[in-house]
Amino acid sequence: RLMINSKIFFKGLFSIKRFDSPGIALGASFIAIGALLKNIGFTIQESVFSSFLIYALPGSLVLAESMIISASLVNIFLAVWLVNTRLYPMTVSLMPLVIAKNQPRWKYYLSCHFVAVSSWLIIKSNYKSVEKKYRIDFWIGIGTATWLIAIFSTILGYFLANFINRDMMIALAIINPIYFTCTMIGAMKSFQLVVSIILGATLGPLFYLISPDWCILIGGFIAGTIAFVIGERNVS
Prior knowledge:
Helix content: over 70%
Shape: globular
Distance between the termini: 40 Å
Mean pLDDT: 85
Low-confidence stretches: none
């Protein structure tokens, strides 16, 4: 199947309308991104292009912060690239669910751009409703929907920038992470996941007292490693 199955694609595209969809949280965060980019001097074209290419929220924030401190192009590229490596575990967990032998590779290369917390949450919750050989088309539909929301919300935020103050911008930016956290808590159906979330929430603030810049990374790494070891021992 060289072409995308339109029926399955639109099923994925319209899955963003579900009650439990992260679409609103995603849009709110990118409204903040659009306003932030305008405030630091981006044109509307540059703002749209950044969301078009970077897509994920943390990468866009790193881009904006790097521009504020006048970092070099190489440093900006490396910073955005490094912050987006957090999507690698999501990709590893996602690909076995959507890979099918009858599908061309270009679909998988294309769909890699759509890996983000919001789209990952949707596919993980709905992939069983689609036959495996069509799941990549379903995933492309989901990714297209969330990607378009990010782009149009950036445009909206750019033009609303004069009406959004600093506190409102911060509030909008953290809605998506809060949504993701709440979703993860709601999905705590295994002891391994419970351990990772509770330890991560505990160790992060503790390591903040030692290293504010690295506390989230260190706390998350240790919490995830402990949860992984526990899970492996339970399996064996």
